Amino acid sequence: MRQIAKPNIFVPLLFILVLYINLFYFISLTSNPYIRSDAWIELQHFLIGFWETGWFSLEDLYRIRSVTHHAHPMHRILLACNAVWLGLDFRLEALFASFFVLGILFVLLKDLLKAKADAII
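Structure (tokenized):
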């Protein structure tokens, strides 16, 4: 009877852990708590209206500055969430996003190990 080898999960988990510690350390040292880049425009045109009325419409989410500019509604929704729950501290937003990266890595690792185990059978 053929013995089925189980995939070794220790090495990939150790690799992910080392990468994530590096990412977490880099974010904690270099992230900026202040508004910059496109967030200034969003603050002026979107977030001030959101604070005044307490809500936003689909028109607010898809409004663009000029013809060459594109609408980015997800960025505006995340900016509103950051304003309400994190007080516009972009360091916390970056650390929160890094937890999602870690979650995605674990999902990919689980699928990879499942595919490897299926290939062995």
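The two ends are 12 Å apart (CA to CA). The CA atoms of residues 56 and 82 lie 15 Å apart.
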